[in-house]
């Protein structure tokens, strides 16, 4: 082939390659311009980033609230009812819905359709004092024949080292009035929950008037605090539970409890004279629901923790 024809063919080949490269470069330039325009996919990316930020924030707040960061880790939130894998983002960090601790998120997710619309959950859970990894048990509650006839409900218990350190239960009734009427029914079924009455007058911290009475071999201090009735019970002893009552009064003054539709109950049951076997329960009604929050001596600062749990309840995104 003549030399000048070889040169011409080579020139055309180089020109063709340049045109192809120019065309590809034009498509690439267009794509970033479109991406810069707000779109649903871009919004989704922003939401994901927000979730990650909330997770970090919640872990930081957990330390402030008296819960350790370890309570937010997947290792410490193993479920007795199932795997944690569904809650993991694949990086070893358990995602948190809003401000809810990861163990609460996992428990609520495990309820599935057994939870009900408008359900609530605590954004604060206490730190357990016993060893072992915290786990949860979450299940639907079903009314008994002779018990309160609620429509739907659920119960979540948190355990560590074989000991329950906190729990919460919410039962939904047909209307507000029915829920109000069943608060004392639920409370009376608890140890130390039978309503107290009568007794001799005493004065607690903050000039709080109270009464000291006895019932069934136990000693009770009881009083009214706004929309709440409070009682502290020393089981099977005539010794008044004054130190525990004093502490409850002080903690109530520093707390902001929910406002019940009717009258709420705060019950502190002490099973031994040393005051080291406490069960603290708050029961109240609101919006047609009856709420129960409970801590035990297996939780760090059980009285303070119970008040904080009750105050932290928020609607859980279903």
UniProtKB/TrEMBL annotation:
Residues 28-92 have a biased composition (Low complexity). Residues 28-97, 111-135 are annotated as: Disordered. Keywords: Signal. Residues 1-22 form the signal peptide. This is Uncharacterized protein. It comes from Alicyclobacillus hesperidum.
């Amino acid at each position: 082939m003549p030399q000048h024809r070889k040169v011409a063919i080579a020139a055309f080949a180089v020109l063709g390659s340049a045109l192809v490269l120019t065309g590809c470069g034009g498509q690439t330039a267009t794509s970033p311009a479109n991406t810069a325009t707000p779109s649903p996919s871009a919004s989704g990316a922003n939401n994901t980033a927000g979730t990650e930020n909330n997770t970090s924030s919640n872990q930081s707040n957990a330390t402030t609230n008296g819960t350790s960061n370890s309570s937010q880790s997947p290792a410490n939130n193993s479920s007795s009812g199932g795997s944690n894998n569904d809650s993991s983002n694949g990086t070893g960090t358990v995602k948190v819905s809003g401000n809810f601790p990861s163990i609460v998120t996992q428990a609520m997710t495990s309820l599935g359709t057994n939870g009900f619309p408008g359900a609530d959950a605590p954004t604060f859970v206490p730190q357990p004092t016993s060893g072992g990894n915290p786990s949860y048990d979450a299940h639907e509650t079903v009314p008994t024949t002779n018990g309160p006839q609620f429509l739907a409900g659920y119960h979540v218990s948190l355990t560590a080292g074989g000991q329950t350190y906190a729990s919460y239960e919410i039962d939904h009734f047909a209307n507000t009035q029915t829920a109000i009427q069943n608060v004392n029914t639920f409370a009376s079924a608890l140890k130390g929950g039978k309503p107290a009455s009568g007794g001799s007058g005493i004065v607690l911290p903050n000039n709080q008037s109270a009464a000291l009475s006895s019932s069934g071999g136990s000693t009770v201090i009881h009083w009214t605090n706004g929309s709440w009735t409070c009682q502290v019970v020393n089981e099977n002893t005539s010794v008044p539970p004054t130190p525990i009552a004093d502490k409850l009064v002080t903690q109530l003054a520093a707390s902001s409890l929910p406002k019940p539709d009717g009258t709420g109950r705060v019950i502190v049951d002490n099973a031994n004279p040393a005051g080291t076997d406490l069960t603290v329960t708050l029961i109240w009604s609101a919006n047609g629901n009856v709420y129960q929050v409970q801590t035990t001596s297996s939780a760090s600062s059980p009285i303070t923790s119970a008040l904080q749990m009750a105050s932290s309840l928020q609607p859980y995104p279903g």
